[in-house]
Amino acid sequence: MRCLLRRAQPLGHGNPACLPRAYHSYDHPPPPGPFGVTEKAILAAAYKHVPEHGFSHRALGLGARDAGYLDISPSALPDGTFSLIRYHLITQREALAERSQTLFGQDGAPTGVGGKVAALTWERLLANKDIIHRWQEALAVMAQPTYVPASLKELAKLSDEIWFLAGDKAVDPSWYTKRATLSMVYSSTELFMTNDRSPGFTETNQFLDRRLEEVKSIGSSIGSIGQWVGFTASAGLNVLRSKGARI
């Protein structure tokens, strides 16, 4: 059996390049997109309403109308408002590849894998700037038990994408550690950003630098699934309290 070039690494032992696993292959066409034609049309139109209406049924209804569908059309989306959140996560992750070409092709571009990881992480965080005032509401949805697995999967894909675009080629056990750690650095920085009112999110940038420096000095993973759930659940509680819930 011929081994293909893969993005994801295996769980288990043996040759990490030849065990079965989900993978990114340059020899096969990419799988179908995550959204159908109607879904994509509604979500793309609804996304434009997120800054004003949040990741909400109102935004979905307006998006359906803008895309030429009946207002009831969003009910066809299997995950409701989480579909809109997932649309944001997927489209911004996929956009990183193109943005990285510009980012690394300019004068003074970061060099080395570590520098590129930091630059890409910051670039992805900046992609939240137009909806960051709505992101705690999104985190509250993502923290619901039904959506935690899908949310964690998207976070893992983002971390893998950043390491891949930065040129990481490691196939040893550090593959897992680096991605788990970056996932936690990213999620904690993203949550910090929801409360940052500094110009250009400079305080968030400094927070990110500190977390990355901590990882570098500690030399080990600082995250876990429980920590991510803790971050998002905390954000969710804050949103509910802000809406008058007595909790």
TrEMBL record:
The protein's annotated pathway: Cofactor biosynthesis; ubiquinone biosynthesis
GO biological process, one term: ubiquinone biosynthetic process
Any one cellular-component term (Gene Ontology): mitochondrial inner membrane
Keyword Transit peptide: yes
Domain of life: Eukaryota
InterPro entries noted in UniProt: COQ9_C, Ubiq_biosynth_COQ9
Major localization class: mitochondrion
Subcellular localization, as worded in the UniProt entry: Mitochondrion
Keyword field: Lipid-binding, Mitochondrion, Transit peptide, Ubiquinone, Ubiquinone biosynthesis
Molecular-function GO term, any one: lipid binding
Residues annotated as domain COQ9 C-terminal: 148-218
NCBIfam families membership: diverge_rpsU (TIGR02396)
Function of the protein: Membrane-associated protein that warps the membrane surface to access and bind aromatic isoprenes with high specificity, including ubiquinone (CoQ) isoprene intermediates and presents them directly to Coq7, therefore facilitating the Coq7-mediated hydroxylase step. Participates in the biosynthesis of coenzyme Q, also named ubiquinone, an essential lipid-soluble electron transporter for aerobic cellular respiration.
Family as reported in the entry's similarity comment: Belongs to the COQ9 family.
Protein name in the entry: Ubiquinone biosynthesis protein
Organism annotation: Hapsidospora chrysogenum (strain ATCC 11550 / CBS 779.69 / DSM 880 / IAM 14645 / JCM 23072 / IMI 49137)
Native organism taxonomy: Eukaryota, Fungi, Dikarya, Ascomycota, Pezizomycotina
